[in-house]
Specification:
Layout: H1 3-26, H2 30-49, H3 57-78, H4 96-113, H5 116-127, H6 132-139, H7 143-161, E1 177-184, H8 198-206, H9 214-221, H10 225-237, E2 241-245, E3 248-251, E4 254-257, H11 261-271, H12 274-285, H13 287-290, H14 302-324, E5 342-349, H15 356-361, E6 367-373, E7 377-382, H16 391-394, H17 398-408, H18 419-430, E8 434-437, E9 440-443, E10 446-447, H19 450-461, H20 464-482, H21 491-498, H22 504-515, E11 533-535
Helix pairs in contact: 1-2, 1-3, 2-3, 4-7, 5-7, 6-7, 9-10, 11-20, 11-22, 14-20, 14-22, 17-18
């Protein structure tokens, strides 16, 4: 490739988007921005095609863009075009003051992107008029170090001023990061509490695939260095990031897509209908037992019970598989954390979430299993027709589930509730955990006692030999999907979270059952808790 071809290629791939962004920043008029952009491009292309020596294309385009912009201002004012030679500003030029302000703005921009001691040294020396000796005493460094910082800062600012900076996508379209963990969270609910702010979330997302400097994070988020530094320091202290080399920081936990419909499709294509047919054959063989009162305390018919059994039996198989293959990190090997926790963090990026319409056309479970483990052992699997996500589950106090359990077991009589219990039961009615029928109040979700749950686990062992090879196949698909996407230094954590993808076996089973008209049609009184499963 010749020098000219290289410059033309680099201009097309790297500079064109920056030029239009520059023009839109300088003018509020779209057509004016387009005209200015065309003029800049024409001038740059003329220079490249003429064979002009261009050592730094970025700086050259930035210089041409500024000159063309100033020319546009003069043309609007005087009605003619004046193209200034490079680095010339006439002292009596009516736009000289504007140009000076533009230069000041660029200096402020470069200073805001400068990290740590360099920025402090520049501010103290040029704004606070402190000598190098005074700065050295203030910062506890040698005079030579301060002079070195000032020299490097001047060099970096000069280079930056001649650079057409390109702020990252997160500066105008920030992502969202949802935090979870395995193990025991810290005293202030770390790690979930550590990434509540959008700035912290987007720092973690930006520095996930590769380590970034403070300046690179500033450019990606469009936020000045003092604020980025503060967030990064906090995230490093709480062990969500680490400094992998001098001045470079990287996210230190796995981040997965919040929803990956393509992965669900692949598992469905390669594991179904075989998985579903084996599972349904097993459930049908146990139907007589699973519909007994001790297993079916709410008196649901078989099509309603399948909403639960297609959730819980695959989940049991997933548990068998992960335990037998030692995929997850042992609790003893999970690191202790600064604030008393013992956890491995997990993030869910919303970047690949599919529109709800697409989900409705495919797999009806858009939210994975959620758990509320306290005095009440409850878990659920949520579906698009809930008209709500799993927040309805977490917003319901655990005491409500505990009271419901005691009523179902016959330990508490609804007619004898005290004032506190009446309040909790009113929540159960509002949330439709209990519904009123002609025969009185009855629970509207699946509940079994400990003995029956143990029997359910024992039953599940009978189908292991047939289902576990398909669970393994699904896990191999998941690993192939994510192994390259997860940075190598985090692979030791993957097993704790990639097994979450096996929940698509539940999702796809529900989809297959609905396609075969095996599931009850949700009604207003039962749609929220279709797959809720509770035990002692």
């Amino acid at each position: 490739m010749t020098e000219k071809e290289y410059l033309l290629h680099a201009f097309e791939k790297e500079m064109l988007p920056k030029i239009y962004g520059f023009c839109r920043l300088k003018t509020n008029d779209v057509s004016e921005a387009e005209d200015l952009s065309q003029d800049i491009c024409l001038e740059v292309l003329k220079s490249i095609n003429s064979g002009k020596r261009i050592e730094n294309l970025n700086a050259f385009v930035w210089s041409i863009s500024n000159h063309m912009f100033f020319n546009m201002l003069r043309k609007k004012k005087h009605g003619d075009t004046l193209y200034l030679p490079e680095n010339s500003v006439a002292p009596d030029d009516p736009e000289a003051e504007y140009i000076l302000e533009e230069q000041k703005r660029l200096l402020r921009r470069e200073l805001s992107l400068m990290s740590g001691n360099y920025r402090k040294a520049v501010v103290m020396h040029y704004f606070d008029e402190m000598s190098c000796e005074e700065i050295a005493n203030k910062l506890g460094k040698s005079v030579g170090t301060v002079k070195w910082w000032l020299h490097d800062a001047r060099t970096a600012m000069e280079k930056g001023i001649n650079t057409m900076r390109d702020y990252g996508e997160k500066s105008y379209r920030p992502g969202k990061l949802f935090m979870s963990c395995t193990g025991q969270f810290g005293a202030d609910r770390e790690p979930m509490s550590c990434a509540k702010r959008a700035s912290a979330q987007n720092i973690l997302l930006a520095a996930y695939k590769q380590p970034l400097t403070i300046t690179e994070l500033c450019e990606e988020l469009g936020i000045s260095a003092p604020y980025i530094e503060d967030e990064v320091e906090y995230l490093v202290e709480n062990q969500l990031m680490k400094e992998v080399s001098k001045g470079k920081y990287q996210t230190d936990f796995v981040i997965l897509p919040g929803n990956n419909l393509a992965l669900a499709n692949k598992i469905y294509e390669e594991c179904f209908p075989e998985f579903f047919e084996k599972l349904m054959a097993f459930l049908e063989s146990k139907k007589e037992v699973l519909t007994e009162k001790r297993f079916n305390t709410a008196g649901f018919d078989w099509s309603r019970l399948l909403w639960v059994y297609l959730h819980i039996f695959p989940e049991i198989q997933i548990g068998f598989y992960t335990y037998a293959n030692k995929i997850t990190v042992r609790y003893d090997d999970i690191p202790l954390r600064p604030n008393g926790g013992k956890w491995i963090a997990l993030g869910y990026d919303n970047g690949m979430c599919m529109p709800e319409k697409m989900q409705r056309e495919k797999y009806h479970a858009f939210d994975g299993p959620v758990h509320k483990n306290s005095m009440a052992n409850v878990q659920g699997f949520y579906h698009w027709w809930n008209n709500a996500d799993s927040s309805v589950f977490f917003e319901t106090p655990v005491e409500v589930f505990e009271l419901c359990r005691e009523i179902i077991k016959g330990n508490v009589n609804i007619s004898d509730l005290n004032d506190e219990q009446k309040y909790l039961f009113s929540i159960a009615l509002e949330k439709k955990l209990f519904v009123k029928t002609e025969d009185g109040y009855t629970h509207n979700y699946y509940y079994i006692n400990r003995a029956e749950y143990r029997e359910m686990l024992s039953m599940s062992e009978e189908i292991c030999r047939e289902l576990l090879p398909l669970v393994h196949k699904a896990y191999s698909i998941i690993c192939a999907e994510y192994e390259k996407a997860v940075p190598a230094h985090l692979h030791w954590q993957m097993g704790n979270f990639l097994t979450n993808g096996l929940n698509f076996l539940v999702t796809c089973s529900l989809f297959e059952a609905e396609k075969r008209d095996l599931l009850s049609v949700p009604e207003e009184s039962n749609k929220t808790w279709l797959s809720l499963f509770a035990t002692e």
